[in-house]
Amino acid sequence: MDQTRAKTIRELFVEIKLSCSEEENNIQVCGVTDDSRQVRPGMLFVAVTGITVDGHRFIADAVANGCVAVLASRDFGGECPVPLLRIDDTGGALGYLAAAFYDYPCRRMKMIGVTGTNGKTTSTYLLEGMIHDAGGIPGIIGTVSVRYKGSESPASLTTPQPVELQRTLWRMHQAGITHVAMEVSSHALAMQRINGVWFDVVLFTNITRDHLDFHGSMEEYFSQKEKLFASHLKRDGKGVVMLDGNPGEVDGESEAWGDRLVRVLAEGNHPVITCGIGKGLIRSRKFQFDLQGIRAEIVAAEEEYLLNSPLVGLFNLKNLLGAIGCGKALGYDLPTACKGVERVRGVPGRLERVTVNGEAESQAAGLATVFVDYAHTPDALENVLLTLRALEPARLIVVFGCGGDRDKGKRPLMGAVAARFADVLLVTSDNPRSESPQRILEEIEDGIRGEKLSKVQGELLMRGPFRKGYDIVEERGEAIRIAIRGAGKGDVVLISGKGHECYQIVGNRKLFFDDRQQAKEQLNMARQAA
Predict the structure, then answer these.
(1) Phi/psi at 242 (nearest 5 deg)?
(2) What domains can you pick out in the chain, each with its CATH number?
(3) CA distance 186 to 228
């Protein structure tokens, strides 16, 4: 916390009802935290009951470290030497308290929230380019990093914890940031991390199966996404919705999630801008894809623009349309919005091309075309594979796995998708975490078997240009080696699942591992051997 700032309890509890004495209302605090290890003299400690840790167990530690008051949802279990303030939901209060401590920085900048299963990171990169090109000063909070005005730090979570989030927004405001584009995950919404943040524009990209280990059902997953529109739009805020064909069930009737969200926004009297392929207020008409990118006619009411983007594939056209919709919601005309997104050359780990000394030299050396992508849901993987299949490669070679301690039900689904579109499939370890890597691979293989793809030893599979099949190669680096060293000119290799991540989580260890670095090393060796 910033030790030069100070607020009274009364000033902090603007958005939250708290019953306390006048003396308690006038307590001065120099910071707010829910981590007893971060308590410094003069701070307010908020005891939050989390999924695995109960902050009430650490009240004594917080007091020993010098907190001047404690906010809790139950009694301390003894006499507390500092004022013990009581409310029912301390977790929900934390974001509002942090926002008040930092004078509600979201009210001083244009805020754009992006939510959806896929496309959040790409959308924020596109918005960053657009805002900068239009003369604004963008700040970005997301899966890859937190960055603004030349400052960049790796992200530990897609959406930061409440205190860190408000501190970051305050620092952005102090640095002169005019617009913040922020990824908002369903976990963050469910855990109330963004309480105290309200948005001028919120974009819904899509919703497909993911995180059901946490949410339990698609209905609950959607309800968390919906909160961003229902509870976190500013009074004059606008919703931007990608219209997609993924249906949800409402009272036994099938309704696309995007259409359902449009209806919710209309009921809340919020303006909504719809986007889509051939439909919506912002839509594309004719479009073409190749390895060089996307060319598409974009239409918005009476405006038209011929878009040329270096991004690849139909799913990226959808990301472009959503970002352009946000631009319109921010007041940009269509050419301004489109020119801004055109300047974005690529996004880390999102269908990112890996080459040796540039694309031309890789092609001249007769090397395969290699992409690294973050796709870790059945829908995302299918979108990427459809995009690459449309490029008509000699062979489509896929390396992928699934993470441990996550939705197990999607593993066979992803195996089936990969087997359906790949010529050569090497199933490997991702981030196994506390699970057995072998067990994860077996569950993926269950889905592959349903597609009747033959199992062949990987090295042999790669030697036969007309052979189709799959193999299980647990060690990820070895799978990447087999794929790239066995591939040749005209082949496309996709290494999927980890994208920008530069680590592998095995047990409780976080080990350095970067798919892009591994791929580049193997491409170099292939060039030297040619």
Answers:
(1) -80, 125
(2) 7-101 (3.40.1390.10), 105-342 (3.40.1190.10), 352-529 (3.90.190.20)
(3) 9
Report the percentage of the chain scoring pLDDT > 90: 79
How far apart are the C-alpha atoms of 499 and 140, rounded to whole Å?
A: 18
Residue pair 345/327 in contact by the 8 Å Cβ criterion: no
pLDDT digits (tens, 9 = 90+) for 199-237: 999 999 988 867 677 667 888 888 888 889 889 999 999
523-528 contact pairs (CB < 8 A, 24+): 523/354, 523/355, 523/356, 523/362, 523/367, 523/368, 523/370, 523/484, 524/356, 525/485, 526/365, 526/367, 526/368, 526/484, 526/485, 526/487, 527/356, 527/362, 527/365, 527/367
Q: How far apart are CA 503 and CA 514, in angstroms?
A: 6
One-letter amino acid for residue 313 of the chain: G
Once rounded to an integer, what is the mean pLDDT over residues 404-415?
Answer: 95
Calculate mean pLDDT across residues 65-84: 91
- Measured between alpha carbons, how far is 71 from 91 in angstroms, rounded to an integer? 10
The CB density around residue 432, as the number of other CB atoms within 10 Å, is: 22
Cα angle value 433/194/87 (rounded, 5°): 100
How far is it, in rounded angstroms, from Cα 497 to Cα 394?
23
Angle between helix 162-174 and helix 90-101 axes, rounded to 10 deg: 20
The DSSP output letter for 170 is H
Strands 138-141 and 293-300 turn out to be: unpaired
Distance CA 143, CA 261 (A): 24
Here the tokens at position 361 are 């030299």
**Whole-prediction pTM:** 0.90
DSSP 446: H
Structure tokens at 490: 């005209």
- Cβ atoms within 10 A of the Cβ of 365, count? 17
Token reading at 408: 């197990």
Both tokens of 30, joined, read 């120099």
**Exposed/middle/buried for residue 254 (C-beta within 10 Å: 0-12, 13-18, 19+):** exposed
Cα Rg of the chain (Å, integer): 25
Nearest CA among 427, 375, 422 for reference residue 400: 427
Dihedral over Cα of 511, 516, 521, 526: its sign? positive
What does 407-440 look like in DSSP terms, one character per residue? -TTHHHHHHHHHHHH-SEEEE-----BTS-HHHH
pLDDT tens readout for residues 114-123 = 999 889 999 9
Nearest residue to 226 via CA among 193, 263, 254: 263
